[in-house]
Amino acid sequence: MRKLTTYILFVAACVAIGVLSGIANMPGEWYQALEKPPLNPPNWIFGPVWAALYVMIGTALAETWFDENNRNRLIVFGLQGIFNICWSPAFFGMQNPVLGLAIIVPMLFFILLFIAMSWNPNRKAALLFVPYAIWVSFATYLNLAIVLLNP
């Protein structure tokens, strides 16, 4: 029962942080006015995708939490989480795509590092981060393109 409670708490915390960040940093008229790159998805897709990703992120955290010798992976998880939390306020809140890019690149690095570090000790945690890595890679493309298209 303790394990299930931990999973529920970690998933709920990750989803709650994501929802709060999204509400506090809604894309507004500024974002709508930006020149967007090819492959820019419709705005409605971001909420459901991030909700699913936050469930997987919380599950990966719970998986890692119960592993032995998890300290370094938990640190890397925390670092990617800090960058994740900072991206929306930088990009949308401060309306600063350059700062957003400066945040999302190391975020992607730490996501990939978490996958690499988790691959052998906990394949499930690593695989739960793969869709996250793919989405953040795509978001990095979008962020970079917005920087280049809106000097």
From TrEMBL:
It is found in: Membrane. It comes from Endobacterium cereale. This is Tryptophan-rich sensory protein. CDD domains: TSPO_MBR. The keyword Methyltransferase does not apply. PANTHER family: PERIPHERAL-TYPE BENZODIAZEPINE RECEPTOR, TRANSLOCATOR PROTEIN. GO terms for biological process: tetrapyrrole metabolic process. It is a multi-pass membrane protein. The keyword Transmembrane applies. Keywords: Membrane, Transmembrane, Transmembrane helix. It comes from the Bacteria. The chain crosses the membrane at residues 7-24, 44-62, 74-92, 98-119, 126-149. Belongs to the TspO/BZRP family. One of its GO terms (cellular component) is membrane.
